[in-house]
Design goal:
Elements: E1 6-10, H1 14-24, E2 29-33, H2 36-45, E3 50-54, H3 62-72, E4 77-82, H4 87-96, E5 101-104, H5 109-131, H6 140-157, H7 171-182, E6 188-191, H8 198-207, E7 216-220, H9 226-234, H10 251-254, E8 259-263, H11 270-282, E9 284-285, E10 294-295, E11 299-304, H12 308-313, H13 319-325, E12 328-331, H14 342-357, E13 363-364, H15 366-374, H16 380-394, E14 399-400, H17 407-410, E15 418-419, E16 422-423, H18 440-458, H19 463-470, H20 474-483
Parallel strand pairs: 1-2, 1-3, 3-4, 4-5, 6-11, 6-12, 7-8, 8-11, 13-14
Antiparallel strand pairs: 9-10, 15-16
C-alpha cells in the first residue's frame, strides 16, 4: 500500500471543512485550515501534495490565496471549490493561480475523491518527470502520457534479456537470480566493481517486478554530504538548512509504490546509516524541517563496489543496515572474468555508436577483437564502451582495426596469430605466443576463436567442411559460433 498523500483543505465554514475532511480522510492525510493565514503557516512547516480551497472566504478569496501559493510553494496541485459559478473567478483561477480543477458545490463524495486522487497522481507524475530530466511545462494529460510512454520504453529497454552475455558466461546465473528476486518484494544488494552494470541489473529487477508501473529513481550516495543526501532522499522544508531555498520532495516519496536505487551505499557515513536504517525499518520518512512523518512504500535496491562484509567487520558499516539491505545479495562479475562476453558486448556497442555517430562501421577485425579479449579492462564494460567510441571515430575502412586500439590495450598483450592452422604467434619480441597479463583460459579462447575464423575463411563459411577440419561435430561447431559471435561468417549451405 502506497503512503498517504497530504491534502490541505482551506474553508472558513466549519461544517463544510468537517464534511470535506470526513470524506477525504478515507484515503488521504487531511490538514484543515480555517483561513488563508492558517493555511500559510501549514505550508511553511509541512510538505503538501494538493490544496483544496474555498473560493469565497472572509479576508481573502481562494484565487488570491492560491496565486500567492503558486509563487511561494509551487509544488502542491491547487483546486478551487465553490458554490458560485462566476466565470471571472474561474478564468482568474486558471490563468493566475494555475488551478488544476474547479469543483462546484454541492459536491458528490465519489466525484470529490476522484478529483483529489487525480491531483495527487499529477503531483507524483510531475515529480517523476523532474527526476527523469524532463524540463517542460506540461498539461496534466500530457504529463500522464509522457510518463506512461517513458515507462513503456524503459520496460523494453531494461529487460533482463537485453543484458548482453554469452551462454557460458558467469553473468548468466546472476541474471537468473535477478529474475527470481524481481518476483518478490525483497531488498537486493548488488556488489561488483565500477562499470560492471550494477544499475542495469537494478533497472531490470524493477521493470521485471510488479512495481514496474511506478517510478524507478536513482541516487548516488557517495556524491553528496550527509545533509544534502538527507534532503535528496527524505525531502526538506524551505530554510531547513543553509542552501534549502525551497521545499523539496524526497526521492523516497517520488519512488512511492516503486523502486529506489541507492548506488555507492558503502560510501555513506555511520550517522546517515542510522537514519536510513530507521526509514527501512519503519517505512516512513520525515523531511528535514517538517513536523510530520510520511509513510512510504518503496523497494530498495542498493549497490556498492566495496566489500561490505569487510566494512562491517571493520566497524565502518552498520551490521543491522547491511542485513536489512542484503536480504538478497547479487554479485556482478568483472569483465576480465567473462572474456566470452566481450565480442557480444563490443558488437552491441559498435552498432549503437555507429548509428549515433552516423558512421558506416560494421565490423571488428579478428586481431583487434582477440586483443580486446586479452586485456584486463579495469574499467569494465564502461571502459569497453569508451574504447569502442574512440575506435569508431578513428576507423577508416568500415571496421575496427587493431591499429585503432588505444596504446594501453595494444601494449597489454599481442593477439595470437595463426598460419596454416598452426600457432606461430609472438609477443613484443618473445617467441612463446602468449599475451602478458592474460589467463590461460583467455589465451585458449582467443586461439580457438581465431582457428575457427580462419577455417571459415578458407571454406567460405561451409559448416560441414570447417567442422571436419577442426575435428568437431556440426552441433559443437554451431555452439562455438554462437559463443564467439561468428554466425555471420556461415554460408547457407553450411
Amino acid at each position: 500500500m502506497s503512503g498517504q498523500a497530504t491534502v490541505l483543505v482551506v474553508d472558513d465554514e466549519i461544517r463544510s471543512l468537517e464534511s470535506l475532511k470526513r470524506v477525504l480522510s478515507e484515503e488521504f492525510e487531511v490538514i484543515c485550515a480555517k483561513d488563508a493565514g492558517e493555511a500559510r503557516r501549514v505550508l511553511e512547516s509541512e510538505i503538501v501534495h494538493a490544496i483544496l480551497c474555498d473560493q469565497r472566504m472572509q479576508h481573502e478569496t481562494g484565487v488570491d490565496f492560491l496565486k500567492h501559493v503558486r509563487e511561494v510553494w509551487p509544488d502542491p496541485v491547487r483546486m478551487i471549490i465553490s458554490g458560485y459559478s462566476d466565470s471571472e473567478d474561474i478564468i482568474a483561477g486558471i490563468n493566475e493561480a494555475g488551478i488544476y480543477q474547479y469543483i462546484a458545490k454541492p459536491w458528490h463524495p465519489d466525484k470529490l475523491l476522484d478529483s483529489v486522487r487525480g491531483a495527487v497522481q499529477l503531483f507524483r507524475l510531475q515529480k517523476e518527470t523532474e527526476t527523469a530530466g524532463i524540463d517542460m511545462k506540461l498539461t496534466p494529460e500530457r504529463v500522464k502520457r509522457v510518463v506512461t510512454e517513458k515507462r513503456g520504453a524503459a520496460q523494453q529497454l531494461f529487460d533482463f534479456d537485453r543484458i548482453v552475455h554469452a551462454p557460458d558466461s558467469p553473468l548468466r546465473d546472476v541474471i537468473e537470480l535477478g529474475r527470481r528476486a524481481a518476483d518478490f518484494d525483497i531488498s537486493v544488494l548488488i556488489t561488483g566493481e565500477s562499470g560492471t552494470g550494477k544499475e542495469l541489473l537494478a533497472r531490470a529487477i524493477h521493470y521485471g517486478s510488479s512495481r514496474s508501473a511506478k517510478a524507478f529513481v536513482v541516487e548516488n550516495c557517495g556524491a553528496l554530504p550527509d545533509e544534502l543526501l538527507e534532503s535528496e532522499l527524505f525531502g526538506c522544508k524551505k530554510g531547513a538548512f543553509t542552501g534549502a531555498y525551497q521545499d523539496r520532495i524526497g526521492l523516497f516519496e517520488v519512488a512511492d509504490g516503486g523502486t529506489i536505487f541507492l548506488d555507492e551505499i558503502g560510501e555513506t557515513s555511520p550517522a546517515f546509516q542510522v537514519k536510513l536504517l530507521r526509514v527501512l525499518q519503519e517505512s516512513e520518512i520525515r523531511p528535514l524541517g517538517a513536523q510530520r512523518v510520511r509513510k512510504v512504500d518503496v523497494r530498495v535496491v542498493a549497490a556498492t563496489n566495496r566489500d561490505l562484509e569487510a566494512e562491517v567487520r571493520a566497524g565502518r558499516f552498520r551490521r543491522d543496515l547491511y542485513y536489512r539491505l542484503a536480504a538478497f545479495p547479487l554479485h556482478m562479475p568483472a569483465l576480465r572474468e567473462r572474456p566470452m562476453d566481450i565480442p557480444l558486448i563490443a558488437r552491441r556497442v559498435l552498432d549503437e555508436v555507429s548509428k549515433a555517430y552516423g558512421r558506416a562501421v560494421h565490423g571488428i577485425a579478428p586481431d583487434a577483437l582477440s586483443r580486446m579479449q586479452c586485456y584486463d579492462w579495469p574499467g569494465n564494460v564502461r571502459e569497453l564502451q569508451n574504447e569502442i567510441q574512440r575506435m569508431v571515430v578513428l576507423a577508416d575502412n568500415g571496421q575496427l582495426e587493431d591499429r585503432d586500439l588505444s596504446p594501453r590495450i595494444r601494449s597489454s598483450g599481442a593477439p595470437i596469430t595463426l598460419r596454416n592452422g598452426h600457432g606461430n604467434g609472438h609477443h613484443n619480441g618473445h617467441g612463446n605466443g602468449h599475451s602478458v597479463g592474460a589467463t590461460l583460459k583467455t589465451q585458449i579462447e582467443a586461439l580457438e576463436r581465431l582457428m575457427i575464423t580462419e577455417a571459415l575463411d578458407r571454406h567460405g563459411g561451409n559448416i560441414s567442411r570447417v567442422a571436419g577440419e577442426l575435428g568437431l561435430s556440426r552441433v559443437g561447431l554451431r555452439n562455438k559460433l554462437g559463443r564467439y559471435d561468428l554466425r555471420k561468417g556461415v554460408s547457407r549451405d553450411g
